[in-house]
Amino acid sequence: MQEEETVRGLGTIINIVAVILGSGIGLFLKNGLKQKMQDMLMQTCGVAVIFIGISGTLQGMLRVTEGTIETKGAMLLIFSLVIGGFIGQLLDIESFLDSIGDKLKSMAHVKEDNRFVEGFVNTSLIICVGAMAIVGSIQDGLSGDYTMLAAKSILDFVIVLVFTSGYGIGVMFSAIPILLYQGGITLLAIAAGSFLGEELIANLSYIGSALIFCVGINIAFGKRFQVGNMLPAFIIPIIYSIIA
């Protein structure tokens, strides 16, 4: 009897469906929420994202050895953010993301929606850049295990529901980056196989969590960081892993 073939990439599909459904419900609730309530929901969600980023970063950097707390990866984090930010600023990735948001805004015929681009960019960064997105996509590609992405889908459902009530329909279009980003990682994992080591995955995860922290700051307190320009930070751990 032949073993049942594992369907790889199913986790990303589940995630996309969750984002679309959550956004749809958020749009339905948007008209029933006053502006002050929308602002409060955005601020509280921003604070939650900040602590998610902090916990993910510390989880990757702290180790308890014989009752003593030790840190690791501090220099890698610094070099990744500094060099990645330098490259991102040269490429002006933030403006590129904004231009994509403007094009989608025009395609959706919502030019009067001033928060479309902000909603698209912020939501895309939150639900794409993070430990669960990276690790879950890799697991899905290597073994067809989509459980982590399924759990992430539940979290994303709640996030986009709240965000759509504040930002509007731009949040729904974050399903496109999920398809490209998580789907791309899954395809890479299928092609690379066991080449992706646990240490590389861990490094990518906690650096992604550091970027999530910056996104949380932007949501709670207004735009302070150009997180899009920090995305090349993911290149540094890969280079470090190859050299090491």
What does this entry look like structurally?
- The structure is a single chain.
- This protein is mostly helical and about 240 residues long.
- It has one domain.
- The protein is about 75% helix and about 5% strand.
- The protein has ten helices and two strands, in the order ααββαααααααα.
- It has helices spanning about 10-30, 35-60, 75-90, 95-105, 115-130, 130-145, 145-165, 175-190, 200-220, 235-244, and strands at about 60-65, 70.
- Helix 2 packs antiparallel against helix 7, helix 5 packs antiparallel against helix 7 (about 145-165) and helix 6 packs antiparallel against helix 7 (about 145-165).
- The model has no long low-confidence stretch (mean pLDDT about 80).
Q: Count of helical segments?
A: 10
> What share of residues are in beta strands?
under 5%
Could you give the order of strands across the largest sheet?
Answer: 1-2
DSSP strand tally? 2
Q: Which structural class do you get from the secondary structure elements?
A: mainly alpha
The largest pleated sheet is described as:
2 strands, antiparallel
Mean pLDDT: 82
Radius of gyration: 18 Å
Helix content: over 70%
Unreliable spans? none
What is the approximate shape?
globular
How many structural domains? 1
The helix-strand sequence is: HHEEHHHHHHHH
What distance separates the N and C termini?
A: 44 Å
Oligomer: single chain
Pfam family, one: DUF554
Transmembrane segments: 12-29, 41-62, 74-97, 117-138, 158-180, 200-221
Protein name: DUF554 domain-containing protein
Keywords: Membrane, Transmembrane, Transmembrane helix
